[in-house]
Amino acid sequence: MFVYTAFHAEHKKKHIDNEGDLNIYGENIQRFLGVYSTKEAADEAIRRMKSLPGFADEQDCFFIDELTVDKVGWTEGFKHD
Questions:
Q1: 70 by DSSP, 3-state: which?
Q2: 3-state percent helix, strand, coil for the chain, nearest multiple of 5
Q3: Count of domains forming the chain
Q4: Residue 59 is assigned to a structural domain of this protein
Q5: pLDDT tens for residues 13-60?
Q6: Terminus-to-terminus CA distance in the chain, angstroms?
Q7: What pLDDT was estimated at residue 10?
Q8: Is 55 a member of any domain?
Q9: Mapping DSSP to helix (H, G, I), strand (E, B) and coil, where does residue 29 land?
Q10: pLDDT, position 30
Protein backbone atom coordinates (compact mmCIF):
# COMPACT_ATOMS: atom_id res chain seq x y z
CA MET A 1 0.00 0.00 0.00
CA PHE A 2 1.26 3.47 -0.90
CA VAL A 3 0.57 6.97 0.39
CA TYR A 4 1.57 10.23 -1.24
CA THR A 5 3.12 13.09 0.71
CA ALA A 6 3.07 16.62 -0.65
CA PHE A 7 5.67 19.30 0.12
CA HIS A 8 6.57 22.82 -0.90
CA ALA A 9 10.14 24.16 -0.80
CA GLU A 10 10.73 27.88 -0.36
CA HIS A 11 14.17 28.61 -1.70
CA LYS A 12 16.71 30.92 -0.16
CA LYS A 13 19.32 29.83 -2.74
CA LYS A 14 19.14 29.30 -6.50
CA HIS A 15 16.54 26.81 -7.63
CA ILE A 16 18.51 24.56 -10.00
CA ASP A 17 21.78 22.78 -9.15
CA ASN A 18 24.57 21.86 -11.58
CA GLU A 19 22.83 18.61 -12.55
CA GLY A 20 19.61 20.45 -13.39
CA ASP A 21 17.81 19.28 -10.24
CA LEU A 22 15.84 21.53 -7.95
CA ASN A 23 17.76 22.15 -4.70
CA ILE A 24 15.49 21.69 -1.67
CA TYR A 25 18.19 21.52 1.03
CA GLY A 26 20.55 23.93 2.73
CA GLU A 27 18.90 27.19 3.73
CA ASN A 28 15.61 26.29 2.07
CA ILE A 29 12.38 25.94 4.01
CA GLN A 30 10.45 22.75 3.32
CA ARG A 31 6.73 22.78 4.18
CA PHE A 32 4.81 19.56 4.66
CA LEU A 33 1.38 19.92 3.05
CA GLY A 34 -0.28 16.58 3.72
CA VAL A 35 -0.60 12.83 3.18
CA TYR A 36 -2.95 11.54 0.47
CA SER A 37 -4.29 8.13 -0.51
CA THR A 38 -3.72 8.72 -4.24
CA LYS A 39 -1.33 10.74 -6.37
CA GLU A 40 -4.34 12.41 -7.97
CA ALA A 41 -5.52 13.66 -4.56
CA ALA A 42 -2.04 15.05 -3.84
CA ASP A 43 -1.96 16.73 -7.27
CA GLU A 44 -5.37 18.31 -6.60
CA ALA A 45 -4.23 19.63 -3.20
CA ILE A 46 -1.17 21.20 -4.82
CA ARG A 47 -3.32 22.72 -7.57
CA ARG A 48 -5.41 24.46 -4.89
CA MET A 49 -2.31 25.59 -2.93
CA LYS A 50 -0.70 27.24 -5.97
CA SER A 51 -3.09 30.19 -5.80
CA LEU A 52 -2.38 30.98 -2.13
CA PRO A 53 -0.04 33.78 -1.00
CA GLY A 54 3.60 32.70 -0.90
CA PHE A 55 2.98 29.44 -2.73
CA ALA A 56 1.91 31.35 -5.84
CA ASP A 57 5.38 32.93 -6.03
CA GLU A 58 7.09 29.54 -6.39
CA GLN A 59 4.80 27.44 -8.57
CA ASP A 60 7.52 24.91 -9.57
CA CYS A 61 8.52 24.15 -5.98
CA PHE A 62 5.93 21.51 -5.11
CA PHE A 63 6.89 17.85 -4.69
CA ILE A 64 5.06 14.57 -4.20
CA ASP A 65 6.75 11.51 -2.70
CA GLU A 66 5.33 8.01 -2.95
CA LEU A 67 5.87 6.10 0.30
CA THR A 68 5.22 2.48 1.19
CA VAL A 69 3.15 2.07 4.36
CA ASP A 70 4.85 0.10 7.19
CA LYS A 71 8.26 0.24 5.49
CA VAL A 72 11.27 1.97 7.04
CA GLY A 73 12.34 4.75 4.70
CA TRP A 74 15.78 5.33 6.25
CA THR A 75 17.94 2.23 6.35
CA GLU A 76 21.39 3.64 7.15
CA GLY A 77 22.89 5.75 9.90
CA PHE A 78 24.21 9.28 9.45
CA LYS A 79 27.09 11.44 10.57
CA HIS A 80 27.44 15.17 11.05
CA ASP A 81 29.80 17.04 8.75
A1: coil
A2: 20, 30, 50
A3: 1
A4: yes
A5: 556 666 766 655 556 788 999 999 999 999 999 999 999 998 998 888
A6: 35
A7: 79
A8: yes
A9: strand
A10: 84
